Amino acid sequence: MPYLLAVRSRNNGSLVRMNASSPPNARHSGNTYRTIFISDLHLGTRGCRSDFLADFLRQTSCEKLFLVGDIIDGWRLRKSWYWDAMHDEVLRLILRHARTGTEVTYIPGNHDEMVRAWLPPHLPHVLEAGGWEGGGLEVAGIRVRGEAEHVTADNRRLLVLHGDAFDSVVRYARFIALLGDGAYTAALVVNRWFNAARRRLGYPYWSLSAWLKRQVKGAVKAIDRYEAALAGEARRRGFDGVVCGHIHHAEMREIGGVLYLNDGDWVESCTALVEHHDGRLELIDWAALNRYSFHAPQSRAVAEAV
Questions:
Q1: What pLDDT shows up at residue 190?
Q2: Where does residue 42 fall: left (phi above 0), alpha (psi -120 to 50 degrees), or beta otherwise?
Q3: Residue 165 CB: number of other CB atoms within 10 A?
Q4: Global confidence as pTM
Q5: Lesser CB count within 10 Å: N end or C end of the chain?
Q6: What is the pLDDT of residues 64-114, one digit of tens each?
Q7: What is the set of domains in the chain, with CATH numbers?
Q8: Which residues, other chains included, contact 117 with Cβ-Cβ below 8 Å and sequence gap of 6+?
Q9: Among 120, 129, 122, which residue's Cα sits nearest to residue 149?
Q10: Is the model's pLDDT at 28 over the cut of 50?
Q11: Angle, helix 174-200 to helix 208-215, in steps of 10 degrees
Q12: Do strands 281-285 and 271-275 pair parallel, antiparallel, or not at all (unpaired)?
């Protein structure tokens, strides 16, 4: 079945279009979508681009909103407290979506793993093809789930999960993961100063930390293994695709006949995965679309879907 593939190039990180045809009479739906997937907000850290995210949440609407893990960074907050008014604003906007009729589903990740403890232990957190979809709990109109299933408008079944269970470092060597988190935080500090200099020179936001990650061969290989593992799990369980986050690398591609969809993050790339009302899927790079400088959000430029 044809669908939109607007994917992130492995060479330069920009959004590119793959050769995929659109359904007949497809129209761009502006800021209104059937479904939005966002993850890795890392609220509670200085690296969180809460200003860009708040602008995105104000300017978009959807029937379903999936929060695909690492929404609040419990790892960082346990070490040092950081929370400002814009972080409050992001939570307020998410709650407003829930109050105004959007079906909001929150799937905790490893950085907000404390929320996983709220899930009833006697309920399964694993979805099999055609099987269980219930369980979890509801808080302030937001459903909390270990995993979820999403069926697109063109009847593709997608497994939705954060993805840290398929990261061998996080799963089997938590101490190494925490060390890596510290190094990553240092890289984000450099990234802030780098973009402050770009802003003074009149240049838009650009993620130095994301660029550095793409240059490291080991990181590229780890990303490939991660993507293959998630696609393989979706295939094994009978899904048409998988939506995840965790590695801060927005991507949309087919792997062995399974659609791998990573919605990216709001620390480095400021991306979201959206489903249009006809079932087309698209990655949106909010910072690039708006040519954001380091601080001031501007009006959104419309990215035309193929």
A1: 60
A2: left
A3: 19
A4: 0.72
A5: N
A6: 999 999 999 887 777 888 899 999 999 999 999 999 999 999 999 988 888
A7: 19-290 (3.60.21.10)
A8: none
A9: 129
A10: no
A11: 130
A12: antiparallel
CB atoms within 10 A of CB 232: 16
φ/ψ bin of 3: left (φ > 0), alpha (ψ from -120 to 50), beta (otherwise): beta
3-state secondary structure of 207: coil
Q: Residues, the chain, total?
A: 306
Q: Produce one character per residue of 53-84: b if its CB has 16 or more CB atoms within 10 Å, e if not.
A: bbbbbeebbbebbbbbbbbbbbbbbeeeeeee
Q: Which residue, 191, 181, 192, 233, is CA-closest to 212?
A: 191
**Burial of 201 by CB count in 10 Å (0-12 exposed, 13-18 middle, 19+ buried)?**
exposed
Tokens encoding 293: 């400088």
Q: Which tokens belong to 181?
A: 């988190």
User: For residues 212 and 133, what is the distance between their CA atoms, to the nearest angstrom?
Assistant: 39
The pLDDT tens digits for 143-197 are 999 999 999 999 999 999 999 888 753 344 344 344 445 555 555 556 665 656 6
Retrieve residue 267's tokens. Answer: 């620390």
Query: Which residue, chain included where needed, has tokens 């045809």?
Result: 21
How distant, in Å, are the alpha carbons of 10, 18, 172, 246, 292 from that of 164? 22, 28, 11, 6, 30
Rg of the chain on CA atoms, in Å: 18
Tokens of 54: 């708040």
- Taken in order 250, 99, 102, 52, is the CA torsion positive or negative? negative
Contact 70, 263 (CB under 8 A): no
Query: For residue 283, what are the β-bridge partners?
Result: 273
